[in-house]
Design goal:
With 117 residues, this protein is mainly α. Helix content is 43%, strand content 3%. It has one domain. Strand 1 and strand 2 form a beta hairpin.
Length: 117
């Protein structure tokens, strides 16, 4: 996937889910109720391991072989910034945060128009 495709997938996922993936207030890649974070939605079911929980994506990639992340056409900074967007931002602010993210990486924010009233 290109950076644009990654952005579109994550934006669509977050803006459809409309809530953070958390357990007891802590962000998770996946939650028991089926939520996924910005990075969790990029990890295939085959590649996911509960051991990933609690680790930043940059550490995951250094410690684990995760083909679904390693095959993405982006760097760790790109993924890390997506993770921070989910982990620190309120869902109500995600449209603007995603727009700003897209612009900062010279991507098209067009996907966001699907979620405007």
């Amino acid at each position: 996937m290109t950076q644009q495709e990654i952005f579109d997938k994550v934006a669509r996922h977050l803006l459809t889910q409309k809530k953070r993936a958390t357990v007891s207030g802590h962000c998770r890649y996946r939650t028991p109720d089926g939520c996924k974070c910005a990075i969790g939605c990029l990890i295939s079911d085959e590649d996911y391991d509960p051991e990933f929980e609690g680790e930043r994506v940059t550490h995951l990639l250094g410690r684990h072989a995760i083909p679904s992340l390693e095959n993405l056409d982006c760097d760790r900074i790109f993924l890390s910034r997506l993770q921070v967007l989910h982990d620190t931002g309120l869902p109500i602010n995600w449209p603007k945060a995603l727009h700003d993210f897209a612009i900062s990486f010279c991507l098209s924010p067009t996907i966001l128009s699907e979620f405007l009233p």
